[in-house]
Specification:
Arc Repressor Mutant, subunit A, 2 domains, 9 helices
Length: 192
């Protein structure tokens, strides 16, 4: 199988499961290689590849495949979107983890309740101090995103700015928090 899907073949492929499997099998090495190159973690690459194939099959089944280019490029674009989603999810988890890192270490050390409460209060003071050091726009985006759980679209509406501006403010807020934490000397915060 050395050719791409030609106009008109998409309809045939969507009905012909065996042919679809042949196309996916033919291009799977290229698509998987792309994913592994970007992710560099075989376990996540396997998951993303599986999700990519599932999305491709669903698109064909539902008649959503558009004959705009090469089949492998289409599969790689689906994989690229899933990789972007994966990276964003990791970034959100890191952001959440940074606000829980002191609490987690306190629990892991098996400290008594009074000492843990003292550490929790200290953590809150540090977080408050660092967040107060942000610009008002960055502080507002950070608060809405982390504490209120709003999407960037909702934040952009509330702040009357574009989604990209809200994303940029969040990015700079996190960068500035890392810098301030490093200056503050708390290495757990500097490793966000």
């Amino acid at each position: 199988m050395d050719h791409d899907i030609t106009p008109g073949e998409a309809e045939t492929v969507s009905r012909d499961r065996e042919m679809l499997e042949q196309y996916i099998q033919h291009y799977s090495g290229k698509i998987y290689g792309f994913i592994l190159f970007k992710i560099k973690d075989r376990e996540y690459a396997d998951d993303i590849f599986q999700d990519t194939v599932v999305r491709m099959v669903r698109a064909f089944r539902d008649g959503n495949y558009r004959e705009t280019g090469r089949f492998d490029a289409w599969g790689i674009q689906i994989a690229r979107n899933l990789i972007t989603d994966h990276i964003r999810k990791q970034a959100r988890n890191k952001t959440t983890d940074c606000f829980e890192s002191v609490e987690t270490s306190a629990l892991a050390d098996d400290r008594d309740a009074g000492e843990w409460q003292s550490l929790e209060e200290e953590r809150k003071m540090i977080v408050d101090r660092l967040v107060k050091g942000l610009s008002p726009e960055q502080r507002e985006v950070l608060t809405m995103r982390i504490y209120e759980g709003l999407s960037f679209k909702e934040i952009s509406v509330k702040q009357q700015v574009s989604v990209n501006t809200a994303l940029g403010r969040m990015r700079y807020a996190l960068i500035n928090l890392r810098k301030m934490a490093a200056e503050y000397g708390d290495m757990a915060w500097a490793n966000l």
